[in-house]
Every structure is written in C-alpha cells, then in structure tokens.
C-alpha cells in the first residue's frame, strides 16, 4: 500500500515480465521526488479478539483529499461499508516530501471513522528526525528564535500525535542552514570578528569507534567526535563556528543514526557552535553488519592577534595547571584492546569500582572532555604562556610538545585525581609507571603553563567551570637525556586510585611491591614454525610479562634466525647431527639456556623430541602449541584428521610433559569449521589462531 503508489508501471506487467524471465525489458520505474506515507487503521482489540460489522464513514472525504484508501478488512452490508477483519483499511498519501505526506495521511485518518478505530500515531517520526536540521538560534545570542521548517510538523499533522524536537543547538550570528538545501552558509562578517583567521580540523575516532560498535553503544560517539575536533581548535585559541559530520555504513540503521545525530547535536550545543548537518552514505560491500565509520569537520575563527600557534614561552619556575579528563581517547585504544585481550575480562565485565552498575565498555567509552567554552576567556587573558591538549596523547609527549628546548617539567602525580580505569590498565597490562605516562594521559586532558604569581588566580578562574589542579613546575633542562617531562609518584598515585574493594583484598605491603619483572624466554625452532614473530611482537608491547632473550635452532640458515637477528635477539645454532645422542644434544641446549638465564622455553616448530632428563629439569617451564582441541597425546603436535560431523576445531597451548595430562592445557582457542573449507585453508587459519593463542598463554 505504501510502495505501489510510487510505481509508474502497470504492476501486472511487471509481475508477468518477472514470471516470463523478461524483467530486463520491463524494469520498474518509480516516481521521482515523491514520498509515500501509509497509516493502517485497525479494529479495537486487534490482533486479539475484535468486533465486526461496525460502519465505516468518511471514505468519500478521504477520496476528495486525493488519498488512496486500501480496503483489507471491510465488506458491503445493506449498501454500507462495515468492518469484517482486524486490519480494516490503510490510508496512503503521496507528496513531494515526508512532512507533507505525513500531514495528508493523517488528515485522511481523521476523516474516516468507525467505532474504536485504532492506528499508530508515530508513523514516520523516526524518518523525520533523521532528515531534519536540528538548528535554531538561541535567545541569548540573537534575541529571537529561528524555527526551521521541520518544526511545523505538529501543525502539518493536525496535532494528531506529539513530536519532540531534538536538543536546541545555539548558532553563532551569521549562520544559516536552509531546510532542504545542499549546503550551509556562514556570514563571517555578521559573526562579529574584526580581522579573523579561520581554523579547521577533521577527525575520526579510530579504534574507539570499533569498541562502541562491539558494545552497541552509539550515544557517546557523536559527543566524542565533536569534542576532539573542538579541542584541537582551542589549542590555537580559536572559537568553533560550525560542525559537519559524515556517517558511512553498509546498511542504514535508523536507531543507530538517530543516537549518533543526537550526540552530535548535544555536543554542538555545549560547544556553542552550529551543527550545519551531516551526510549519511550507504556503501554496499565495504562494511559488515553493524559496522560504520564516523568522521567530523569543524571550522572556527580567531582574531589575528589572539592566535596561540607556536606558543612556547615557558620559563623556569612557571607552574603547570592540569584539567581533568576521565575518558580514554585516540591511539590509547590500541594498547587498551591488547591489554583486554590478555586479561580475563570483556567489555561487558563490571568496570573497576562500579559495584556492577557500569560495564568496562561503558568506562572505556566515556566521551572526551570538551574544554572550549570555559577555557577561551582564560586563554585570551594573556596570562597563559603555553597550552597543550593531551587527551589523545601520552602525558609525556603531550606536554613536551609545548615546552621550549631550554626547559623541562616535573609533575607530581599525587596532586591530581587519577580515574580508576587507569589503575585497571596499569594492573592488568603489567605496565610500568613510565609506560603509563608515555601511553596514557592518566586523567589530565589539558595543561596550561602560567607564571607562578598568577597561578592561583588563573586556577580559580578555571575551577569555576572545570576540575583542575596545580600539577607541576617548569624546571631547568634534564641533563640525563630522555623526556622533557618527568612524572613523580605516579606509581603511588595509581595505587591510591584503585577501587576500594581491591584495596581491601590486598595488604599494604603487597600494594607497594615493585612492578613484576619480565620473564626471560628462549624460543626453540627448526625452521617450520610460525609463532616466533607473534611471540617477539608480544614481548615488545607495553605490559608484556616476558622478553625473548634467545632463539635456538637445530638447523642453520632458517628464516626464524634472521627474524630474531632483525629484532636484536641473540641466536644460537645447535645442530643435532653433531651429537652422538639425544641426551648429549639436550645437555648442550641446557648449558646455553643457563648462559642466558632463561626461565621459560617456547617451542615453535621445533622438530626434535626432548629427552626425559631435560623434560624433568624444565617441568612446567616448556610451552608448545598444538593444532588441535582434542586431548593431547604424548609427543604429538600434529593436526588430527577432521572427523565427520565435527563443527569446531582450534589450537591448544600446553606444557610439554613426559606424560599427557588435562592439567597440561594452558589456553585453547576454538574455531568454527566452515562449509566446503579445504585442509590447506583450515591449516592456515589454525596457524593464525596459534599466533594469537601463544601470547595469551604466555601472559597467563
């Protein structure tokens, strides 16, 4: 009833051509620039029990309005139209746009009557919200209200159902977005600037967007995107003027799109900039179900004499003011995802210190803090000597970027509040305090450098709107090399930020133990394994619990030796052919392992059977990966033939023992078998699974 009125062809001819296999000669043609809306009227009680035989009136009036009425549950009785079914009829209107079609369809519904008529009053509401431009000028800024066309919706529908407009977005003077137009306009002269410089930025959310899609949380990503864009303008002293967004997806999901748009609009309102619109693009074949990409573009302005570009006037004895930022952003998420992989938690697990009312995914998706409205007056006061937005960078790099070469900075981590999520990352990732400062912002989203005698005055101005602290000082340059920034007491501050229930489970002495030392690992190869690269890559990551200190091969010239050499790892070739017995060969390996203080052995395609004395000495310290989920057989690491009806396979990382035991299993990674999958393709997939499973087992 809603599609057929838009079809130009004779529907019978289209169906007949389909049956005859000649649809290419009778392709459906559709009315252009037209929108159809259909409202169904049902009997009271439908789809349950309902009364029949109720007279239907007003059909002639609906026809005079130019509407099409499709009869579904009606019949003629004594010359009158009466109800005979649950879905009685539907009223369809075709107009040039959705709002007009909605209004006409609801006028038709209002004209038709039968006792207890039931119909939905929210038809098309979601579509309208997606299409509308959620803009108006605030009373405070212009002294009047701009009401876009879409706000006439209630009037167009005859007030038959309530419609809640989106959050109001204040628009700077000079901004205009015509409903139905293809572009937004901004009159820079009308915005009040004398000698302005335009500043622009474009951003995406990277891995954080993937986390949002996994968690099915789409209400924060719009806020995140606007905040990151606007904060970058702020770093140049610029005020945001207008924002545009672009959403690309495989298949449009109205609820997801609506949640994202509301987040964008709300963030623009908070930033005081116009949301001129967004483009939504369906890209078939590029995105999987539920996947999308979101990017934003913002334009701001700053008076020529107020630009902060290259602001690096910090001197010794100046003071650093830090502003709070609770969330994790930018490239930090690459490390977060790796830490999560190694931990026993998932995005749906309770967040640290949340008492179960907040998930880890919720904590990780906390939007970026937007500083623009509160910081602009401070930045333009002339008191700020250096300024850095560091929410997307590590603490060290973010601050170093705005310090001159002739000075350094010392921060006291006990002077600010570190959110609990950073304690979790520190603990689960087995990171050092230095790695935390290099990788994460640790709760500081922006830093200002001010003169010492003005520090308290500036801090009070900021604290009227933001949580902020005096966090450090500018000092003479560090002569030992390394970073321009040192963070003192970070380990203690991270301990203090841990959730109370974790503190109660840990005694004071254990809380202040030094970071766990990395275990020395040797990898034994024969040239056929594929796991060495994965192990090396894992040990190079922040928070890994191991370091590869030696690679031993029983064959010379194999690729794994070259890979180890390129990674700076010592190698040794111990040719088994040069030894008279297995025990003599193993004893030589044992001496070399002791020479490098090896504590753990990983086998990666090592094709020699280890002797009983060697296995006894290294019991519980030798790991191997087998391409099977089945119970392990002693000395076997070969893929079992696929059994008929088997739906799952995978790999197992286990201890190498003299006797097989279920307790030898450390970690298993199951994989679903795919239809028509050959042994060769399956073997490659299992190798990839081993590369993922081995580092996880090593962490355990």
TrEMBL record:
One MF annotation (Gene Ontology) recorded for this entry: phosphoribosylamine-glycine ligase activity
Annotated pathway: Purine metabolism; IMP biosynthesis via de novo pathway; 5-amino-1-(5-phospho-D-ribosyl)imidazole from N(2)-formyl-N(1)-(5-phospho-D-ribosyl)glycinamide: step 2/2
EC id: 6.3.3.1
GO biological process terms on file: 'de novo' IMP biosynthetic process; adenine biosynthetic process
Keywords: ATP-binding, Ligase, Manganese, Nucleotide-binding, Purine biosynthesis, Transferase
Annotated Phosphoribosylglycinamide synthetase C-domain domain residues: 35-128
Protein name in UniProt: phosphoribosylformylglycinamidine cyclo-ligase
Gene Ontology CC terms, in alphabetical order: cytosol
SUPFAM superfamilies xref list: Formyltransferase, PurM C-terminal domain-like, PurM N-terminal domain-like, Rudiment single hybrid motif
Superkingdom in the source lineage: Eukaryota
Upper classification of the organism: Eukaryota, Metazoa, Chordata, Craniata, Vertebrata
